[in-house]
Specification:
By secondary structure, the protein is of the alpha/beta class. The protein has two domains: about 140 residues, FAD/NAD(P)-binding domain (3-Layer(bba) Sandwich), CATH 3.50.50; about 170 residues, Polyamine Oxidase, Chain A, domain 2, CATH 3.90.660. It is built from eight helices and 20 strands. The structure holds flavin-adenine dinucleotide. Flavin-adenine dinucleotide binds next to helix 1, strand 14, strand 18 and helix 8. It comes from Oceanisphaera marina.
């Protein structure tokens, strides 16, 4: 009989793991959100769409390139070659082109995850609240203490603080304590076409903001609807994490207008998203690409092990799967 495996979180890491393990195990993914995306999510309303988490990704390892190959072939993943500038409050803008391919999913960032989830069992809108051991099984419970299932293995791909809260510290705690995560604000704007910047994206220095993109100009989007995504720096988000959210939004709008030259009157919609666990802090010398206690049949993976990038999420999960496949 195949072993049963519960994976908590259906972001890129959870889906990678599920795809790798599914031929050899009965895998169930639990995802608290209503849809797939995690930190590669897309927000929509009647007129606009914004990729408010990851804006692009690179592919350096041959394993990640192999995953992407069919998705590039069918147009789910497209290379993005923006007209990119560098802005700062006290210096003239200058161009610093990218020297390696950068990719986006099309027509929205979460499309890659939707494509990866084909044929997998994903239970959406299902938050795992508690993980407990009973004899030789792991029991997963939801917020109403209802049993979600009993499994031989449980693996968390949730962001680090959520993984820490779920998995028994006595089995994984010391290892998990070595990593940490930082917040970020995403400001989502709709802007009249005539007032849009001439560049597609901007890296920003010395400001509360670190990144601005004309999201509607990413490949495969509706280029008519001016949709801007602004990301704050982690330092600024940390300093303003508990501030009044309306005040945070106004400060980021002011900074955006000052940097980009866009008139605030041209902004027709503005939303703020607070990511409490956005990016992992740099891991100078990573201890491991994942965390595993094989005798307890418990593991954790995600971008936080390797420095907080889309490819890091893939690598952590893919390496964990390779080790697990020898043990199942
Ligand atoms: C604002 C922002 C900008 C970024 N920009 C870039 C970029 O430009 N390039 C880049 O490469 N990377 C970027 N990143 C990082 C990138 O998005 C992540 O590295 C990657 O998406 C992480 O994938 P993951 O699967 O490890 O985690 P996640 O995508 O966070 O997936 C974890 C999933 O677990 C779910 N979950 C959590 N707790 C529970 C629970 N109790 N029960 C059930 N489900 C649960 C969550 O809902 C989530 O879907 C950015 C991230 C943010 C937030």
């Amino acid at each position: 009989m195949k072993p049963s495996i519960a994976i908590i979180g259906a972001g890129l890491a959870g889906l990678t793991l599920a795809r790798d393990l599914s031929p050899h195990a009965d895998v169930t993914l639990f995802e608290k959100a209503r849809g797939l995306g995690g930190r590669m999510s897309t927000r929509r309303n009647d007129t606009h769409q914004w990729d408010h988490g990851a804006q692009f990704f690179t592919a350096r390892s041959s394993a990640f390139k192999t995953l992407l190959t069919p998705f590039i072939a069918d147009g789910t993943v497209v290379e993005w070659q923006p007209n990119i500038t560098t802005l700062s409050p006290d210096k003239a803008p200058f161009k610093r082109p990218w020297f390696e391919p950068h990719y986006v999913a099309a027509p929205a960032m979460n499309r890659l995850l939707k494509a990866m989830a084909t044929d997998l069992e994903v239970r959406l809108s299902t938050r795992v609240e508690k993980v407990e051991q009973q004899q030789d099984k792991w029991r997963l419970l939801d917020e109403n203490a209802a049993l979600l299932g009993e499994f031989d293995w449980v693996i968390s791909s949730a962001p680090l603080p959520q993984t820490r809260a779920l998995l028994p510290a006595r089995l994984l705690g010391d290892t998990l304590a070595r990593y940490s995560m930082l917040p970020c604000y995403s400001l989502l704007l709709a802007i009249d076409d005539a007032d849009l910047p001439c560049w597609d994206a901007a890296q920003v220095n010395n400001a509360p903001i670190r990144w601005i993109a004309c999201n509607h100009r990413l490949p495969g989007r509706n280029r008519e609807a001016g949709a801007i995504v602004v990301h704050s720096t982690s330092d600024w988000a940390t300093a303003h994490l508990e501030d009044d959210q309306e005040a945070v939004k106004q400060q980021l709008i002011e900074s955006f207008c000052a940097l980009s030259g866009v008139n605030a009157k041209a902004i027709t919609q503005a939303q703020l998203h607070r990511w409490r666990y956005a990016l992992s802090s740099d891991v100078a010398e990573p201890d491991a690409e994942f965390v595993l206690n094989a005798s307890a049949r418990l593991a954790a993976c995600g971008d936080w092990c390797l420095g907080g990038r889309v490819e890091a999420a893939f690598t952590s999960a893919h390496q964990l799967a390779a080790v697990l496949l020898k043990q199942l």
